[in-house]
Amino acid sequence: MSSQIDDLVRMNDIQTLFELMTEDDDWMNQLDAAEGLVKLGDVRGLDFLRSAQYSEEDDIRKVAKEILASPVVEAKRSVLEADVERERKLKRQEAVKRLQAGRKVFQYKMIFLPATEILDEDPLSEGFDVPALTEYGLEGWEVVNMLPRRRQTLVNVVDDNMSGAYFLLKRELAAGDAKELDGS
């Protein structure tokens, strides 16, 4: 970690660390700032490092995994995860009370469907079934957004580079669904 980041950690400057993590052009500074946030107990740094583990760049993945495996970050990680779980439990309890009072509660989830499950030939323009989405619909889930996922290509080809799509699903819970909140 750079001395600049160490200084910011000593000063408890969470705001500047967050700005470095999200806005700096140097990925190493971003990862160092995320590590600094974790050391200060900010879960956003942990989330950033977890995401970096799946970067397309080998160097970024390697450094993120090293940081996450360090003893200091590993110890803070356990504390942060326990805090997050405690907050989720409280929110679920509040949601159960909302349901019991007749108020609305929603669940959301993101799913990925490969292109082979989404795209089909439709010569008559009548539409076609997407069985996976139909199954979710029968369970009460509604598609609220779709984000296409494209393959990495060196040539800008529009036709053959869609690898699938992420679908944001939403479902309203009823009073009888309160038990589902215990496991979410």
Walkthrough of the structure:
The structure is a single chain. This protein is an alpha+beta fold and 184 residues long. Helix content is 52%, strand content 17%. It has a three-stranded antiparallel β-sheet with strand order 1-3-2. It starts with a helix and ends in an 11-residue tail after the last strand.
The largest sheet is: 3 strands, antiparallel
What is the element string, with H for helices and E for strands?
Answer: HHHHHHEHHEE
Number of helices: 8
Number of strands: 3
Which percent band covers the strand fraction? 15-25%
Helix content: 40-55%
Spatial strand arrangement across the major sheet:
1-3-2
**What is the averaged pLDDT score?**
87
- The global form is flat
**What is the radius of gyration?**
21 Å
Outline the low-pLDDT stretches.
none
N-C termini distance: 36 Å
What oligomeric state is this?
Answer: single chain
Q: Report the structural category.
A: alpha+beta
Pick out its properties.
single chain; 184 residues; alpha+beta; 3-stranded antiparallel sheet; 8 helices; 52% helix; 17% strand; flat
Produce the secondary structure layout.
Elements: H1 3-10, H2 14-23, H3 27-39, H4 43-52, H5 58-69, H6 71-100, E1 105-114, H7 115-118, H8 131-138, E2 142-150, E3 162-173
Antiparallel strand pairs: 1-3, 2-3
Helix pairs in contact: 1-3, 2-3, 3-4, 3-5, 4-5
